[in-house]
Amino acid sequence: MNVTRTNHDEVSALLTVTLNKSDYKDKVEKTLINYAKNATVPGFRKGKVPLSMVKKQYEAGIAFEEINKQVSEALNNYVNENNLKLVGQPVPVPMNELDYNADELSVGFEIGYEPEFSIDLSSYEAPHYKVEASEKEINTSIENMQKRFAEKDAQEKITKDSYVALSIAQVVEADAEVEHNHPPKQVTVSAEQKEGFALVKGSKVGDVIKLTKTQLTENEDLAKSLSYDAHELGHIHHENLEATVVEIFKLNLAELNQELFDKVYGEGNITSEEELRNRVKTELDEYFQQNADVHFVNKILEKISEKEEVQLPEAFLVKWLMFSNQNITSEAQAQEILEAEKSIIKNQIIEGKLLNDNEVKIDYTDVLAQAEVLVNNQLAMYGIHNLPQEEVQKYAVEMLKQEEQVRQISQEVAMNKLKEVILEKSKKKETKISHDKFLEELKK
């Protein structure tokens, strides 16, 4: 068995795997003998089926399976031994019918791979913001805690402090030919949702407010205030809607006392309002800083992508797209798709290069820990902060039984580790900034 390489350029080549009949003959013969021993054929006792009969029926399939196995192993071994970082997957070269009885046979594969280049992270610099929570943001966060555990107080009329619960139903046309069943959408609006709150102004419980799909699609602020996103708008099947006022109430905020502290952070962990404010500030600062770190890393990656010349195996990628996607029927179509994906491929190569050169490794412990973070974040959305660690881990393990979740979480772990590498090795232009100013920077 032999693998030869013919380079097309610095990022693509033809690999030819050559097998001698002796490479697979003995294994094929051994498999056929085992078939003969176990075959059940009418007119013959088990184990007494003539080998010639077994060969006639099974030899071709067994030979092709063994050849395919050896070719795949040879190809993978060559790629690994030569440290080739493939872009896409090998594309087999079209050939005439394979003759497994030939003394020698060859199979060709077109491959594309990443170019050789290096990235000096220490040569890149970007602003690294130090973002601190303001008193206003701390107050807002604490007020949200109070709202979460607030008591409802029913109202007859809507005031500026009211919350209005709505049930929004689609109105099915009288001449509709088939039965329609669209569950009503439940939403609550307050003065914070200006357009939605204006819609219900002056209403009482039981009142029905008319609106249309056109209103929602043409008025983005109204749609958002009623919690409609683009996906939901696309699934409104009727023009007319009715919003029924189900409930009007105000919230009596929970008092800032030990009972509230214990509900939010667990019994005895916070014992005063001062401790609460310090804890909230620490949490907000950490959250803001995580966002600032991500912003810094993204800026560094943008600069690397702009500066570094990364040659792509474009001719190969056109072939690969046509081979791997039956819906792509021409080179022109494949080239158009490649043009749209070039920057994504380049960025993936850069990120992979940084991970490889900085010896970033990922193991199951890392993936499990990230899954636990995701579980805790999901629980926090429902106000659950103190689930025992063994319970959190149980949910995380269950999450990792799904292959797609493992892939996504592994990618998150890799990017988190890459973030730490970039934060450590790239130059930071340290700048203090308010959270509002930071949000403006994110929009640039």
Polypeptide structure, described:
- The structure is a single chain.
- By secondary structure, this protein is of the alpha+beta class.
- It has three domains: 2-112, Alpha-Beta Plaits (2-Layer Sandwich); 121-129 and 271-443, Trigger factor, domain 2 (Orthogonal Bundle); 151-252, Chitinase A, domain 3 (Roll).
- It is built from 15 helices and eleven strands.
- The chain has helices spanning 21-38, 51-81, 135-148, 194-200, 213-218, 220-225, 230-234, 258-265, 273-307, 314-324, 331-357, 364-381, 389-399, 403-425, 435-443; strands at residues 2-9, 12-20, 91-92, 104-112, 125-132, 151-154, 163-170, 185-189, 208-212, 240-252, 427-434.
- The strands form three sheets. Strands 6, 7, 8, 9 and 10 form a five-stranded antiparallel β-sheet that branches.
- β1 (2-9) and β2 form a beta hairpin.
- α1 packs across α2, α10 packs across α11 (331-357) and α12 packs across α14 (403-425).
- The longest helix is centred in the middle third of the chain and has 35 residues, at 273-307.
- One of its GO terms (molecular function) is isomerase activity.
- Residues 1-145 form the Trigger factor ribosome-binding bacterial domain.
- This is Peptidylprolyl isomerase.
- Pfam families: Trigger_N.
- InterPro entries: Trig_fac (IPR005215), Trigger_fac_C_sf (IPR037041), Trigger_fac_ribosome-bd_bac (IPR008881), Trigger_fac_ribosome-bd_sf (IPR036611), Trigger_fact/SurA_dom_sf (IPR027304).
